[in-house]
Every structure is written in structure tokens, then in C-alpha cells.
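[stage:ingest] chain + small molecule (adenosine-5'-diphosphate)
[stage:ingest] validated
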Amino acid sequence: MDQPDPALHLLRTVFGYQEFRAHQRDVIAHIVDGGDALVLMPTGSGKSLCYQIPSMVRPGVGIVVSPLIALMHDQVTALQQLGVRAAFLNSTLTPEEARAVEDRLLSGDLDLLYVAPERLMLPRTLNLLARSQIALFAIDEAHCVSQWGHDFRPEYIQLSVLHERFADVPRVALTATADGPTRRDIVERLALVGAHMVEGGFDRPNIRYRIAENPGNARDHLLRFIRGEHDGEAGIVYCLSRKRVDEIAAWLNTQALTALPYHAGMSADQRRHNQERFLREDGVIIVATIAFGMGIDKPDVRFVAHLNLPRSLEAYYQETGRAGRDGQPADAWLMYGLQDVITLRQMQEASDAAETQKRIERHKLEAMLGFCELTTCRRQALLHYFGDHLEQPCGNCDTCIEPPQTWDATVDAQKALSCVHRTGQRFGVNYLIDVLLGKENERAGNFGHDRLSTWGIGTHLSATEWRNLYRQLIAHGLLAVDVEGHGGLRLTEASRPVLRSEHRLMLRKMIRPAKAMRGKRDGSGVVDAADETLWQALRACRKSLADAQGIPAYMIFHDATLMDMLQRRPLTRDQMADISGVGARKLEAYGEPFLAVIHAGADTGVSSPRAVVESADWP
Ligand code: ADP
Ligand code: ZN
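[stage:predict] done
[stage:export] C-alpha cells:
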């Protein structure tokens, strides 16, 4: 072809990527031709290019409506790093700064302008736009337009004026989370009837889902997981309570990791400070309650760890979804145990929500518990829950990688259940296990439980194995937890067929967490010592360049780009230009230092990165 497609040309020269992803090509062609589009794609699928490139190809400026002022600055900085003429207009600018941006807008000196919705709606802004040439409107986080969505923003409703006042300008709405009703709202309110629609489902194939039973020392397992697989990488650790957040953060810091707490009990300033460090520095771990995460757009979060059970699969999907937005391998790691199940069940029973609400919550928790106890592919189950479909087991979750074994637990379950029955359906698990193991204690003597038929009938299993069994019995709904909060268990209807041997109960065999949670990420490419050394040297080089400009490391190059360098080891400028994510501007600005790092690695075999990156903050 003598006349290369201008969109593809920009993709290669500016962004440094070789090919469009399938959905990008179609949407971009459609918008470049002046059509409207609705893009429903999961996080990390590359939605931003769908409006960035058409904004550059079409004459005029692309107006991007985005609800999160905090993120605009980062997005614009990232574009400027690529040499794209981008700016934002929002309340953080001084009047002089805003005026300067407006001048650039009017004189056609911008490819992209990010605007907060309330700013856009000001008569002044609308008048400015009317006097400018506009390439398109992109409405990011479009689900905010819907009252059905979880993140409704009244300002978004007014965006309907766009098609009234700027009828000829294409509109593209984008979101990663829209169920049926939300989608209909978006189409209606933004007048997108007949728009080209791309839909990508919910799958996040780069996230590896892993769930293990907590044998009582979750903290140590967490540490081993981070050390073994994510040393020096950014991650989020979710805990249920503020107290636990503070504890875990403090403990990780004593283990030579950089961990910062984040919860609603801290001052707004402290929280902002910690969030900022997490975004800007390399390899910071944030330990948080679920208060953390909304509007976090950090692409290189390599793991999300849960030290407690999320309330629902929706919450689990959303929280784990903060990992691996850059599409690189990432881990969703959850450790849960008997106590989680008991606590959540109790909280639910004790809540004074209306009965219908309670029923919904019970159902959601059941789905979450069922998900934890699965013996088949987790991704298939997760996607199924969201009405999506995956033909084959994924091969990238713990149950696929190491299929759990099941055992016929009928007889032991009968022992566990009849122990509940014979002790009067009011004791908690620890006491029940003492009875099963025949562990002499004062209470048992007082109650006469040492004379029961279930006294000491369980010595063939350990206390841990009994806890594991009780957890599964509760998770499967054969036992209910008391409302008063003492953890007493009672039988449910569902336990009868098992007690009467009418129903065989197959349960998950306990997997030792060390085993279940083992394994370096596939595809990370970091295999041997020389690789590891070069990888660290590339990261150090990136960090020093980022620090010099006061921007986050990922704005220099994403992990995927460093990984490509690691695998292909470019030695010349031309070879460097071939690396995915190295466009013309970045080749110019950063090609040399990275080539020097790779050369040094090649010369010495296993190089000393310190010699190469003088200014780097080498640990
Ligand atoms: P989303 O907005 O859908 O969450 P992004 O637009 O942030 O996704 O893109 C996710 C990642 O994929 C980014 O690191 C981006 O640079 C990368 N990416 C996007 N399109 C391509 C492409 N065609 N080739 C290679 N990488 C791409
Ligand atoms: Zn799987």
C-alpha cells in the first residue's frame, strides 16, 4: 500500500504498537468516518485508543468527558509523554492556566482536551466549543449517566445537550461496567441509537484467580506470596477492619517491604498522601479497607490480595479488577477461612435490613462462598455469574493449574453434624472439635459431654481438618450460625439428607496453602538470574528517568514494554523502535539510556546495574 491507513500509522509511530486489537480497528474506522459508537469492554482492553486516535486523525480537537478530575492530570501527562498535544480543563487550574488552555483550543493547537462534566456544561465552555473545531466527544465511564449503575453522576444526565448542540460531531461512550438497564440508559440519554457497538464481555484473562484456605497464619502466607512472586512490585492488600489494616501494614514494613495503610479512619490528608505515593512510586503496597480503589487507574498493580472474604462476587470482581490494567500477568490472591464464613453470616443475620434485602445479600454471599469452594475452573464460574460464557476451562486459575481433589466426606460430616446435634446446637466450632477429639476440659466435664457418643470419635482427623470440614458444611448451608454472635452452630434442613445417608457429600480435600499458592507467573519472562538482573536494571533506569521528571514510572514505559525489551534485547536504535510501546517521541527521549542498560547486560553477561544507572535509587 502506498497510502498507509493514517490511524495505523499513528498507532505505530506515536504509540509504538504494531497492530490494532480487533475491536479497536472497527470502532476507530467507524468514528473516523463520523459515526457514533458505544464501547463496552473490560478494563485493560485498550479503550482509550478508541477515541485518542480518531481525535488525532479527524480535524479538530477530541473532547473527553471524564468524571475523575484526579485522573485527568495523569492521562494528559501520559499523552504528552507520547508527544500528543493534550490538555485538561477543570477546577484545579488557575484562571490564567484555564485561559491559556482555552486559547490553545480556539487556535486549533490541541488534539485532545479532557473536561469534567460540570465544567463542560458551563455556558462559557459550551460557547468556546461552538467556536472551535471538534473532532469528537468521548464520554468516558459512561455508566455514570445511569441511575441503575453503581456510580451515578447527576452532571452526566446533562450530556444529552451534546447531540442537540453539536449534532454533526461523533459521540463515543465507553465503559467497563454496564448491565442491561445501564446500557439502555446510556443509549437513550446520550442519543446513541444506531451507534456502532462493541462488547467485550467480562473476562480479564491476564488475572490469575487463586483462593486458598487460611490455616491460621494468613499473614505469613501473604508475605511468602509477595516475596516469592511480587517482590518490589505494586499491589493492594484488602482487609476487613481498620485495625487489621494498620496491623498488616506495620508488619509488612518490618519485613522490608514498603506498605502504606489506607482507611476511612485516617485524615483526608494522610489518605491522599498514601494514595499519591502508591501511584507515583515503584513497588508500593497499599493495605486498605474497601474504602480504597474507586478511581484508581494505576496500570501496573501486579497483585490484589484479600485477607478476608468479599461480600459478593460483584465486589470480588471489582476489587480484583484493579490488578493488571495494563494487560500484563497479575494475581488475584484470596485467603479465607472458617472465621470469615462465620463472621459474614453473623453480620448478615444480625443486620436490620428489610427481609427482601437480606435475602438478596444471603444469596450473594452464598454465591461467593460457593465460588471459594469450587473444584472446577474459577473463571468459568465467575463469567457465568455475570451472564458471560467461557467455552473451555481457563488454565489460569488455581483450580485449573492444580485441580483440587475431592473426597467422600459423608461419614465425617455425619460425625460433625451429630456432634452439633448432641451438644444442643449452641456451641461454636472450637468446642465441637474438642468434643470430637475427646480433648479433656472443664466445660465438657460440666456439661457431661465427655459421656456423649460423639466424644472422641474424630481422632483420625486433625483439628485443622475438622475446621476445614466445618467451614465447608457452613459454606454449603448444612449448618447455620447463631444470630447472637457467639458463633454457635445449628443444623439446617439441608443437613437432614446427609445425616440420613440419603445424600453423599463430596468435599474439597484440604490443600496445603504453600502448594496451592505456589508458582511464579507464567509469561512474565523472568526466568533466570541474568534475566532477573537485567529486568531490575531496566526498572531502575525507568525509575531514575521518572524521578527526574516527577512522574510515575509507568509513564516512561509500561511493564509490557520493559518485558519486550527483556525478551528481545534490542541493541540498536532500529531494534529499539520495534519494541512494543516505543513510539517516535519515546525513542528520542528514552531510547539511549535503555539501550545502554541492555548493552551493559550483554557485555558482562550478568551485569551490575549500578554501574549503568548511576542516578538510580538502587536498593
Ligand atoms: P482500558 O481503558 O480499556 O482499561 P487502556 O486503554 O488503558 O485500557 O489500555 C490497556 C493497555 O493496553 C495499555 O497499557 C495500552 O497501552 C495497551 N494497548 C492498547 N492498545 C494496544 C495495542 N493495539 N497494542 C498493544 N498494546 C495496546
Ligand atoms: Zn480456570
